[in-house]
Prior knowledge:
The protein has 222 residues and is an alpha+beta fold.
Amino acid sequence: MKLTSVAWVSAAVICGASIAVVTARATTETPPDLKLMVPTAFGDWAEASDHGAQVVDPLTKETLDKIWSQVLTRTYVNKDGYRIMLSMAYGGDHQAHRPEICYPAKGFMLGTVQDGPLPTPFGDIKVRRLTANLGARNEPVTYWVAMADHVVRNQFDKRMVQIRLFLTGQIPDGLLFRISSIDKDPERAFAMQQKFTADMLAAVPPATRRQLSGLESPAAAT
């Protein structure tokens, strides 16, 4: 094939892809309502009347509204008084808003950063756990990003989801789900965050569970 022919074919492919992207953006699925996705009370947890420690975010509300189509922050407390801070954001550039980026932007020092499974009765979620501290505030964090009912941990995962959905006319937005605790004991904090997540997923409908974590039915017994 002549070089000019190759160039024309490449141009046609790029043009076709651009048209497909426009079509996909026009048929993107209806965004979820974050306030309705997670109940204000479930298991041993209930939304705290006072928010206690502030949820970390280096950006102003006006800036957040430009980046994300929806943002939800809540603080939950269990019967023993243990607090979990929940932060959810939908749409926008979740890559730039990941905790390992936004915590240092707020002046925190990062400690350990590890990827691993978070067990639930419905299966494991691929999460990232990290520790951050600012003065006397020690904050272990667990988070994940879901796109089109799948958890994505990196750019490769994200591209795979986008490619898989490309021909269906969808460009999924990202849902960043972050939970954290003010706790000097990371092991205890991560255990409490795991319990919080498991209790939450057990309390929501299957469709919501799938949107949040990519998980559906209870995990098969081994």
